[in-house]
Specification:
single chain; alpha/beta; Aspartate Aminotransferase, domain 2; Aspartate Aminotransferase, domain 1; five-stranded mixed beta sheet; 12 helices; 12 strands; 34% helix; globular; binds pyridoxal-5'-phosphate
């Protein structure tokens, strides 16, 4: 069955019943007998959909987790209250004092902070490698346990060769996790490309309406058990209201992604014609670092693009004049956004050919592309 069709059917229960599953709120789950209580506790050790106690999620969260596991081609998927909590939850089960973690240099900045502060304080050694690495020999140590990737890169969208990287990492016995928030369980399937863990900030496209926080870690193979135990022991789950909002968001994920992608393409093509613009970063552009790999491994792009303006152009004043684009953190909602970007700041291997002008990251929302372009054009006109 095509994924577009599956999106309409996730969470369906017996008929007669609601088309969209209702919110189930619960902490305590009641049993009539001790035997039933004990059987439930035994069953939940291996079955993540067993309703046993609110801390293990209610049926609403289980339905969302099952849908995401299916989209990610995973054996299991675990939910977290935010994307950053999911990043932490994907790393800590596998790392202890004295272990070494390799992180791609182009990682999401909050993930970098987590590695450099919390993990480092707990005795995990952290090193960064360039995004185009497919042979880890220069970076591994005897105590290396895990590799954390993100593709395309945060803010600059370099595309990693995940199949090649995973082959090399697995030959060395390493676990590979990838932040798949860009692909959001729709455009890109890291587990099918060889990764053990795929992390998604559902706050972005899965929620899709700028009103919900969520994180998910999908896993397959030997990584699953430790992740399952860790999420249970650390009390990580997603509340039923947020799970409901994400299940509802999933119904239109495919449609929304199509429009976000089309609008971003229109903006990319248009920005490239402007004399004020020095460079446009977008993984769909021919010549963009790794764009051939993206074309091979993914099915389309999302609404993000980053524009580097010519030196001396006041890009922040340009953003202030926009009416349809607001300034704000995050992305993946229906709304258009513009934010100052600094993809190279804090990196060990900054882009060699970066320009000196200001950079803005745009998120193309679901407005009509003609209106977005008219808004941008009006701001250029007033510069
Ligand atoms: C937004 C984001 C996160 C964190 O998600 P939150 O829900 O904001 O905590 C993690 N990784 C990437 C790539 C993101 O874009």
């Amino acid at each position: 069955m095509k994924r577009e069709t599956k999106l309409m059917h996730y969470g369906r229960t017996a008929t007669p019943g609601p088309a969209n599953p209702p919110i189930m709120r619960a902490s305590t789950i009641l049993h009539d007998t001790v035997e039933s209580y004990r059987a439930t506790k035994a069953a939940r050790a291996t079955d993540d959909a067993v309703l046993s106690y609110g801390r293990r999620g209610t049926t609403t969260a289980h339905q969302l987790a099952a849908a995401l596991a299916d989209l990610e081609e995973a054996e299991a998927c675990f939910l977290f209250p935010t994307g950053v909590a999911a990043v932490a939850g994907a790393l800590t089960p596998y790392l202890g004092a004295g272990d070494h973690l390799l992180v791609v240099d182009t990682i999401f900045p909050a993930t970098r902070s987590y590695c450099d502060t919390v993990l480092a304080r707990n005795g995990v050694e952290v090193d960064y490698f360039p995004w185009d690495t497919i042979d880890l020999s220069d970076y591994v140590r005897p105590n290396t346990r895990m590799v954390l990737a993100e593709s395309p890169a945060s803010q600059s969208y370099e595309v990693m060769d995940l199949p090649a990287l995973c082959r090399d990492a697995h030959d060395r016995g390493l676990i590979v996790a990838t932040d798949n928030t860009y692909g959001s369980s729709w455009l890109y399937r890291p587990l099918a490309l060889g990764c053990d863990l795929s992390i998604v900030a559902g706050t972005k496209y899965i929620g899709g309406h700028a009103d919900t926080m969520m994180g998910a870690v999908a896993a397959r193979g030997p990584a699953v058990d430790a992740l399952r135990r860790h999420t249970a022991m650390t009390g990580q789950t997603l509340g039923p209201d947020d799970a409901y909002a994400c299940l509802r968001g999933l119904r239109t994920l495919g449609l929304r992604m199509e429009r976000h992608g089309e609008n971003a393409d229109r903006l990319v093509a248009w920005f490239q014609t402007r004399p004020e613009v020095a460079e446009v970063l977008h993984p769909g552009l021919p010549g963009h670092p790794g764009s051939r790999i993206w074309a091979r491994d993914a099915c389309g792009c999302n609404g993000l693009l980053t524009v580097g303006f010519r030196e001396g152009f006041d890009a922040e004043a340009f953003v202030d004049r926009l009416r349809l684009f607001s300034v704000g953190s995050s992305w993946g909602g229906f709304e258009s956004l513009a934010m100052p970007a600094a993809p190279d700041s804090g990196r060990r291997f900054p882009r060699p050919d970066r320009g000196a002008g200001q950079m803005i990251r745009f998120h193309a929302g679901l407005e009509h592309a003609c209106d977005l372009i008219a808004d941008l054009e009006a701001s250029f006109d007033r510069a």
